[in-house]
Amino acid sequence: MSAVAVGPPLWLLFELTYRCPLQCVFCYNPIDFAATQDELPTAQWLRVLREARALGSVQLGLSGGEPLLRDDVEEIASEAHRLGYYSNLITSGVGLTQERLKEFKRVGLDHIQLSFQDSTRELNDFLSHTRTFQLKERCAEWIKASGYPMVLNCVIHRLNIDHLDSIIDMAVRMGAEYLELANTQFYSWAHLNREQLLPSRAQLERAAEITRDWRERLQGKMRILYVVPDYYEERPKRCMNGWASTFVTVTPDGTALPCHTAKMLPGLSFPNVREYSMQDIWLHAEGFNRFRGQGWMKEPCASCDERDKDLGGCRCQAYLLAQDAAATDPVCAKSPRHAVVVRAVEQAQRVNVPDSGVREQPLVFRRKENSVSLSHLGANENRTPSQ
Amino acid sequence: MTRPVIRPGFRLQWEPVQNAHVLLYPEGMIKLNVPAGEILKRCDGTRTLDEIVVELETAFQRTGLKDEVTHFIAGATSSGWLHP
Asked: Which residues in chain B touch residue A114, judged by CB atoms under 8 angstroms apart?
């Protein structure tokens, strides 16, 4: 692997905790999150910050779970500011108070991204299985009033995509400067619930039209980032800008990963920051080097003239859909396993008719009991749970 | 007389590891080339466009930079890097 030039890990993501009061059905946290009990102590997070900064990390995400369930986020943000990071707090709003907001501002936190699940209280609260809509509205007001750039995020999928117009309208009314509308990517909990979450082509076409209209109307006053689900693409996404090229995640227990879902891949070992320095991890860890560059590629990627563009797509998706982490991402029309994606897309064209006799599977909420039972059953992420 | 200034929420800084100025914003980063870094560094709300041009011409012993700087600042404004 010495042939691969390794650049700096520009993006550092701290998943400070897997604890979260929300139970979102599309959560990308691992199915077995309940197995993690031993969260890194503050001093370790601070050490990782310093080591990664020396390697060139400059964007810091503070996420989770719900990061605000920890009481040391302010301290971590403060050190991040001192070191020259641009720090992003990614929150559901639960745990945010005006006092904490004031402290974040004081210590130099740069930006807060607030998530909504929908523009209606009913669906927001259903999808997250919590009564949080009004709390989020209040948080949005506070964030705006404290002078932060207002960034709203709403994960889009089959169940809320028809509300897109009112979701964008809500963001405008809240004075957002950015609105991130990312369609669910199908990993972890979203993969379990894929059948209920993958939108139809007609839904996506309408959503694209609505987004286009709003963009014209807003003329850059609010920027809308809209990401389509890659199942509808003919070529895979350039996942993480290339394996271990730009991005490093540290999970609540200190495991370092080249992307937030990589831990699901079998046969790869990922180091813990309690035992290794960030420099050791970034440059030498087997799990980081495994898919760097292009030496690992098989056909059809290995001789494909588009391999520099998409780098073979996503390793986790290759594993989830083709049971081989080194395979071509099955989203690619050139993949011998592309039929798996085509079938899922075909199925998504069904019309939801209550009495059609087609029985929908129940949604699986991201909650501790489900995590425990799904992990104990040895269910891998390919299996949809039986009732 | 407008005095170009970097938009709130954006931050310009020098990154030794990248040997470049970068512009940081919510969940994003733009790595700047030398001219872009030199211009943006002077967009601190205290200098007018003409003053920025004069400073750059002096610093780099060049003349006739006005068009280039004006063009860059217009682009940076429409990209949302500078306060409109």
From this structure: none
